[in-house]
What we know:
The complex is a heterodimer of chains A (97) and B (328).
Chain A: E1 13-15, H1 25-29, E2 35-38, E3 41-44, H2 55-59, E4 65-67, H3 76-88
Antiparallel strand pairs in A: 1-4, 2-3
Chain B: H1 10-21, E1 33-37, E2 46-50, H2 53-61, E3 68-73, H3 80-86, H4 91-100, H5 103-106, E4 111-114, H6 124-131, E5 134-137, H7 145-150, H8 157-160, H9 166-170, H10 173-194, E6 197-198, E7 201-202, H11 204-232, H12 241-260, H13 266-286, H14 296-323
Parallel strand pairs in B: 2-3, 4-5
Antiparallel strand pairs in B: 1-3, 6-7
Helix pairs in contact in B: 4-6, 10-11, 11-12, 11-13, 12-13, 13-14
Amino acid sequence: MKEFRYIDGAAILKLDQAACIGCGMCEIVCPHRIFRCVENKATIVDYDACMECGACARNCPTGAIFVNPDDGCGCARYILNSWLAKLTGKKTSGCGC
Amino acid sequence: MPQVDTILNRSDHIGTIGARTGIQRDKYTITPGLYCVGWPTADSPVLITANYKLTFDALRHELGGVDAWILVVDTRGINVWCAAGRGTFSTEEIAYQVQRARLVDVVTHRELILPQCGAPGVSALKLKTACGFKGIFGPIRATDIKAFLASGKAADETMRSVTFNLKERAVLIPLELFLLLKPLVLTLACLVLFSGFGPDLYSLDRALQRGGNIAIVTIISIFSGAVLLPLLLPWMPGRQFWVKGMFLGIWVGIFTVQHFFPSVGWTAVTGMAVWAMSVNSFLAMNFTGSTPYTSLSGVEMEMRKGLAVQIVSALLGLSCWLAGPFFL
């Protein structure tokens, strides 16, 4: 996905290397190929490509990865609906996806 | 055990058109459970997928000549990636469907092939504890599944990387347009109604004539924001979508001025151009939900600025437009 880049520094993604056991699951599941496992430790090689899908965190056996836990996808319609819901005090209608 | 075809027939293709245009988007589900392609045995691979029919069709279409089991889990008719994100394509749901289908009695191995895009919702390690079957993440796209199976279940970097090529962007356009239909009709009705106001209070002729002008600009803006933007996405300047949309809006604005000035006065033509920028910017921002590379934090960040600019420019544009008949 080198032809598409989103806002640098925006994604919330943290890797605790001390807790990493180098199993390589994050490297397998990441759809943007952000992780590389070298000598039994994962490293983030392309932080700004992260879209916070959460695949790495879900599959990390030691909980060494933290990704923005907010529900929902990177979708303006979804965020707009949740802001409107906050204003009106009603339940959010999601984004239809 | 339903055996499914690997060749899509006419009604599948018609259904695909229905789902892609939104005509039957919400009811395009298939019954969860175990299916098969070809003549699988107790050793054949088990592929897990979602119960959105477009997803299921994409998978079976790629399985010509393969003998395999397909276990469809209930994601309420949502594709794998979105369902994984919202937690319906989950470890628990797969474990439940494995038990419900009595998969232990169907196959002798203890392995499930998961779509890689299901990883936000499924922990391959926990799956083993939950149902006794080990999860293996296959490729992202169904088109790679044959190669994945043939290579001894190994996926290369290409199979594991998400793409967003021209074709993948183009298929999203009909639904974008369909979802805009209702708001468009409402907006156009309001615009035509309000276009009638002038120094002599109200004129129906003016409503139709001025209303027609701004309707043209609005429809062109919808076309550029919902059709051109997805197609031209890699070449649009800026990272933030509201900025990309603004650039398209400036094009439409320049066209508006060239086309309508001087028959429409300066105030009104400026209003139309600014309105076009707002519509384009908003539609572009809306497209973030259809792309596979925008993060929630990023979209939230750009929306704080983008939405403010869009609201101000929409109000400014419409005010100028309304003020048009009173000035030049």
